[in-house]
Design a protein that fits this description.
Blueprint: E1 4-8, H1 13-26, E2 32-40, H2 50-72, E3 78-85, H3 89-94, E4 100-105, H4 114-126, E5 131-135, E6 145-149, H5 153-169, E7 173-179, H6 200-209, H7 213-216, E8 222-228, H8 231-239, E9 244-248, H9 263-270, E10 275-278, H10 284-290
Parallel strand pairs: 1-2, 1-4, 2-3, 4-5, 6-7, 6-9, 7-8, 9-10
Antiparallel strand pairs: 5-10
Helix pairs in contact: 4-9, 8-9
């Protein structure tokens, strides 16, 4: 993993919000920020000179954004890169190896701006590494960091990321584990002895997920919650108005990366606040399979 934070720059207000989020993240760690714009070359036929003109405009856009960012964070180093290809594939391939990929997004909201709203969700699903999606109109004065817990390796990575961010921001960290009784498919009159409240195994999952955080972050305000309900509903409710909502991703194999039923995917579509989709450290094999990325233009 290199010391880059890659930011997708589209020229939309949501991309500006993503850039400022990335600056706040990179500043205390002195990470380099790379502003990337992808010229969409997936159209079947384009007018003569279109791509050349689009590249020129993209370079001008990135130069302006980098100059503005440098005025806000003069201690940081900014780079600009223009790519050509699929706005989703080219960006995620280029970000392989980066510490974080940050993009902006609209909330879905009754299928308004559906194509653009799902673009960030596609990026989060397709990326090999961790992604932060920042809504265009981030709520000012949001409080707290919320992280979903399910006992998986991805979930543990999400907890570590969330704890670091909560400590950095001086915010309370809420670790949320969702429990729900199975819904029997038999007749209502059937006598089935389903457990109707969480047991010690559920509590152990939550306790193990946060083990060691108090020692590593002695000033961290930690709130453990064991909620009854579906993970998506509980996390969206808890994350509404938060500074950050963090979830783990269980990978992107095959069609699973487009599975709209996954918790992280639905949360990115809903966007109750900035959302971080965290993957466990990418192995060398995974990084090789993801490819070196497109050539900059």
């Amino acid at each position: 993993m290199d010391d880059r934070v890659v930011v997708g720059i589209s020229g939309r207000p949501a991309a500006r919000a993503a850039l400022y989020w990335a600056i706040d993240y990179a500043r205390p760690r002195r990470l380099e920020i790379e502003l990337v714009h992808v010229v969409d070359a997936t159209f079947g036929t384009t007018p003569a000179g279109f791509l050349h003109s689009a590249r020129d405009q993209a370079h001008s856009l990135l130069t302006r954004e980098a100059e503005e960012a440098l005025s806000v964070a003069p201690a940081l180093t900014f780079h600009t890169t223009v790519l050509e290809g699929s706005p989703t594939g080219a960006l995620t391939d280029w970000a392989v190896g980066a510490e974080l990929l940050v993009v902006g997004s609209h909330a879905l909201g009754r299928f308004r701006d559906y194509v653009f709203s799902t673009h960030a969700a596609q990026i989060a699903a397709h990326a090999a590494g961790s992604v932060v999606v920042v809504p265009e109109q981030e709520e000012k004065g949001g409080a707290g960091v919320v992280v979903g817990v399910d006992g998986s390796e991805a979930s543990l990575a999400a907890v570590r990321f969330a704890a670091e961010q909560a400590d950095r921001l001086g915010e309370r960290l809420t670790a949320l584990y969702c429990w729900s009784a199975p819904a029997p498919w038999t007749e209502d009159s059937a006598m089935i002895d389903w457990p109707m409240e969480p047991d010690e195994a559920d509590r152990l999952v939550l306790a193990e997920a946060v083990a060691g955080l108090a020692e590593r972050y002695p000033d961290l305000d930690l709130d453990l919650r064991l909620d009854l309900g579906l993970p998506v509903d509980a996390l969206v409710t808890a994350g509404t108005g938060a500074r950050l909502l963090v979830v783990g991703s269980h990978g992107r194999q095959g069609f699973a990366r487009f599975w709209l039923g996954s918790v992280s995917h639905v949360i990115v579509l809903t966007m109750p606040c900035p959302v971080a989709v965290i993957r466990a450290a990418v192995t060398g094999t995974d990084a090789t399979e993801a490819g070196p990325g497109p050539e900059p233009r």
